[in-house]
Automatic annotation (TrEMBL):
<dbReference type="InterPro" id="IPR036457">
    <property type="entry name" value="PPM-type-like_dom_sf"/>
</dbReference>
<dbReference type="Pfam" id="PF13672">
    <property type="entry name" value="PP2C_2"/>
</dbReference>
<protein>
    <submittedName>
        <fullName>PP2C family serine/threonine-protein phosphatase</fullName>
    </submittedName>
</protein>
<dbReference type="InterPro" id="IPR001932">
    <property type="entry name" value="PPM-type_phosphatase-like_dom"/>
</dbReference>
<feature type="domain" description="PPM-type phosphatase">
    <location>
        <begin position="5"/>
        <end position="246"/>
    </location>
</feature>
<feature type="region of interest" description="Disordered">
    <location>
        <begin position="1"/>
        <end position="22"/>
    </location>
</feature>
Length: 272
């Protein structure tokens, strides 16, 4: 099997807020690679501090041991939680720093991917040009939907849609969901990590439609961002997305967004 090539595009904007409390970043090598998006919150401007600390911790810890597994994904999120809890001890009274986090790990040599999250920042996988998988939010509204108290339409319209049931830095129980065993991936797979300020205004049908029309990963993100800017209003949240396009090593100079010939079933997400 030839080593996979990966192309990254990223976009993070303040929207209608005074500061951008979203953070994102990535670290790549010839073997293991890591991408992460975090959406921070907290009084006294603590949200941007929280999200930056989460991203920094995840990337530094992965770079020190770039192994792709569900256990590593859980460990990265748990370590970020521990670091943020320590940082909160030195913040002004009234600061309740916490953050969502979603991460993607890819082993370029083995052609495998793992993802994990806490909160309502999401990971998406598009395979053969179609949406194959998306993470399930840790939120009050998602819990209501799962319990049969409403349709999936509530996820973008309910007045309490921003209330989380798990977040990095919260004093309560930390719930982490991961993709399980490493997922085989190959040329043509496209991943996206994004904050809720992004997916709230760009639904999955538009994500897929724009992907089919896009000439590059950067163009895909810019076209989706235009929907946010058009529909979100003047007081919209920060919005952030990272796109990762997987190519074969032979096509390393070309960003391929079209379908690929082989398909594999996406995994069932596990929660710890």
């Amino acid at each position: 099997m030839s080593k996979l090539d990966v192309h990254t595009a990223h976009l993070s904007r303040t929207g209608g807020r005074k500061r951008n409390e979203d953070s994102c970043g990535y670290w790549t090598s010839d073997a293991g690679c890591c991408w992460v998006v975090s959406d921070g919150a907290g009084g006294h401007g603590g949200g941007d501090v929280a999200s930056r600390l989460v991203v920094k911790t995840v990337l530094e810890r992965f770079a020190a041991n770039p192994v792709v597994s569900s256990e590593v994904a859980v460990s990265l999120l748990e370590t970020a939680h521990a670091e943020l809890m320590k940082a909160k001890e030195h913040q002004p009274a009234g600061t309740d720093m916490h953050a969502t986090c979603v991460l993607l790990l890819i082993d370029r040599e083995q052609g495998q991917a793992v993802w994990g999250h806490a909160g309502d920042s999401r990971a998406y996988l598009f395979r053969n040009g179609q949406l194959a998988y998306q993470t399930r939010d840790h939120s009050l509204v998602q819990s209501m939907i799962d319990a049969g108290y409403g349709s999936t339409d509530l996820i973008r319209t309910h007045p309490q849609r921003s209330l989380l049931t798990s977040a990095i830095g919260n004093a309560g129980e930390l719930v982490i969901s991961v993709s399980g065993d490493p997922v085989p991936t190959d040329a043509g797979d496209v991943f996206m990590l994004c904050s809720d300020g992004w997916w709230e205004y760009v639904d999955e049908a538009n994500m897929q439609r724009i992907l089919a029309e896009a000439s590059s990963a950067d163009a895909w993100l810019e076209s989706m961002a235009a929907i946010v800017e058009r529909d979100a209003g003047t007081d919209n949240d920060n919005y952030t997305a990272v796109g990762v396009v997987v190519n074969s090593a032979e096509s390393a100079t070309t960003v391929i967004l079209g379908p690929r010939s082989e398909q594999a079933e996406p995994p069932e997400e596990s929660t710890s």
